[in-house]
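Inverse folding, one chain.
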């Protein structure tokens, strides 16, 4: 059975791919693309790993710790990546990375809100 929401579930990855030709055609800094897309993919992989680990445990404190640590760590990872590319390469590269990340985050967050009701198992009403 195929997932009818597969595009929404992977909208972020679609945007990472679509952004590459946009950056090339517009002449925007490729270091900004690499940093923004790389930070997005890294934090997505970390999120998926942390979610899997949290689901494997029955200890609520451990589950909360895993998810909280993941959120804080991913935020720092992204912020430092954008800061470093901005300082090491150029202001334009840092701005491009930040804008790319925010666009992908916004689309992913919105898609997640739309998908959420379909991911929750429905209990039959009596």
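Residues assigned per position:
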């Amino acid at each position: 059975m195929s997932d009818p929401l597969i595009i929404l579930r992977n909208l972020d990855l679609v945007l990472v791919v679509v952004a590459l030709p946009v950056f090339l055609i517009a002449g925007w800094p490729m270091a900004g693309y690499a940093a923004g897309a790389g930070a997005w993919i890294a934090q997505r992989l970390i999120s998926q790993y942390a979610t899997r680990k949290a689901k494997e445990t029955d200890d609520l404190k451990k589950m909360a710790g895993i998810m909280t640590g993941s959120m804080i760590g991913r935020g720092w990872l992204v912020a430092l990546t954008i800061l470093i590319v901005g300082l090491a390469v150029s202001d334009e590269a840092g701005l491009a990375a930040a804008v790319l990340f925010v666009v992908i985050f916004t689309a992913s967050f919105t898609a997640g809100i739309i998908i959420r009701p379909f991911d929750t198992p429905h209990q039959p009403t009596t």
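The chain has a mean pLDDT of 94. The chain has five helices and no strands.
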